[in-house]
Amino acid sequence: MKLARAIHFDESDTRVFAKPARTGEWCIAGGFEFSNFGEGDLVGKTRQAFANGWLGVETFGRVTFVAVTRIEDAEREALIEGLSQHFVDIYGAPSIEAARGVAQAEIDEMIDLCEEFDPNTVLTVARELTEAGVKEAFRAIEGQTADLGQFAVHGDLDE
Hints:
The chain is an alpha+beta fold. It has 4 helices and 7 strands, in the order βαβαβββααββ. A 7-stranded antiparallel β-sheet has the order 4-3-2-1-5-6-7.
């Protein structure tokens, strides 16, 4: 089973998101956060989070890039419990039990997305508001294999 972890190529996420995700934390698309938003709500860093931010399910911060990796069943269960608690604390779900099905669906949807990709594949998300609600599109950036010649130093140390 595979899920995605937050990765950073530079420090830009610390400037463009109000709360950046931590490198290495598990992530989901998290478009539900914007389900009741209109164009007027999407300004500044909120617009950036909406446009292309994955949701870290440990800090609930945002990140631009995630990488596909393997996840164990126990980790999946812990994420479902944490996301369920988030739904209670932030969105007013009546109980963890009531929120669990939605949390599990969010985690499993991301697992389904990641299953078709090899480990270390980088994913991006792009969102737009439509008449029907939030539309998400995902893009995969396949890892490049490197030729040993790119790293090897050739020569004679005696010269």
